[in-house]
Design goal:
Largest sheet: 8 strands, parallel, barrel
CATH superfamily: Aldolase class I
Structural class: alpha/beta
Helix content: 40-55%
Strand order of the largest sheet: 1-4-5-6-7-8-9-10
Number of domains: 1
CATH class: Alpha Beta
Distance between the termini: 21 Å
Order of helices and strands: EEEHEHEHEHEHHEHEHEHHHH
Oligomer: single chain
Strand content: 5-15%
Number of helices: 12
Radius of gyration: 18 Å
CATH topology: TIM Barrel
CATH architecture: Alpha-Beta Barrel
């Protein structure tokens, strides 16, 4: 099993789930994971925020996790999204992920229910107490309508199996305001591609990225350049990525990422309702952005030691 305290700096690709003709496309998923590994990402997430997880059956989740663990074959950690708004279901999903060989669980805050801060603490505590798997927790108030406040984060930092925090707010000042114990006991990652470099400059350890689905070499390279002290190169990559990031945000990021992968890897752009295909203007903007990006299959950048 992946050693929790060795969760490295860098870019983790939070993957979409390929579908084809209504079914999970395991061949497409394999190709996507292989491309991520060859492009230098630090790890991958399946069934996570970008995986249309709420549209997956239990058996589909199992097949996705098994395939991801098999394809990665220890080359990079495979994290599995297990967070739901039901504590018992989250525990069950996390147990299942551990049994299937996941390196860690990627656990979003409980959504829709709008629990109090104390309820969120007890939710994560319950998972940590019964499942012996490292947890990377995800703060996505834009999606979940609850926000992890600093007093709660300080309590969560004392749970030894919580090894990382993904902040999806895009507010890079939050890291500086965080209690010292959180900085020393957890690794901190941006979940917002547009501000990922700024988050690293503020002291973050990397990013969990949607854009890495399409541009893994560039997203990983930006973080690597920063870690190696080459800020001009990191900023240059950020500038190059900017049109793509804008295009992903035009309508629906997951749908746009799948449409881009249809061009880049030949993976079907299929989504499941309630998501729907991009409109023509968004598709056109995405096509322009991909053209500006140039060759996305070039030789990967060397990873920092």
């Amino acid at each position: 099993m992946f050693l929790p305290r060795l969760l490295s700096d860098g870019t983790y690709a939070d993957l979409v789930t390929p579908f084809r003709n209504g079914d999970v496309d395991l061949v497409g998923l394999s190709a996507l994971i292989e491309w991520q590994i060859h492009s230098g990402v630090s790890g991958v997430v399946v069934c996570g925020e970008n995986g249309e997880t709420s549209s997956l059956t239990r058996s589909e989740r199992v097949r996705i996790i098994r395939r991801a663990v098999d394809v990665a074959n220890g080359a990079v950690p495979v994290m599995v999204g297990t967070g739901t708004n039901c504590t018992q279901t989250t525990i069950d999903f996390t147990r299942e992920a551990m049994a299937l060989g996941a390196s860690a669980a990627h656990v979003v805050t409980p959504y829709y229910n709008k629990p109090a801060q104390g309820g969120i603490y007890r939710h994560f505590q319950a998972v940590a107490e019964v499942v012996d798997l490292p947890l990377v927790i995800v703060n996505a108030p834009g999606r979940c309508v609850v926000d992890l406040q600093n007093p709660l984060l300080e309590r969560l930092a004392n749970i030894s199996s919580i090894i990382g925090l993904v902040d999806c707010t895009g507010d890079v000042t939050r890291l500086a305001q965080m209690p010292a114990i959180c900085k020393s006991r957890m690794r901190h990652y941006s979940g917002h591609d547009r501000t990922a470099l700024a988050f690293a400059l503020a002291g973050g350890n990397g990013s969990f990225s949607l854009a890495a689905n399409i541009a893994p070499r560039q997203m990983a390279g930006m973080q690597t350049a920063f870690r190696m002290g080459n800020l001009p190169a990191a900023r240059s990559l950020q500038d190059r990525l900017s049109p793509l990031l804008s295009a992903l945000e035009m309508e629906h990021p997951i749908v746009a990422a799948k449409q881009a992968l249809a061009t880049v890897l030949g993976i079907a752009p299929d989504v499941r309702l309630p998501l729907t295909p991009l409109d023509e203007s968004a598709r056109a903007a995405l096509g322009v952005a991909l053209t500006l990006m140039g060759d996305l299959h070039s030789r990967p950048l060397a990873k920092a030691s």
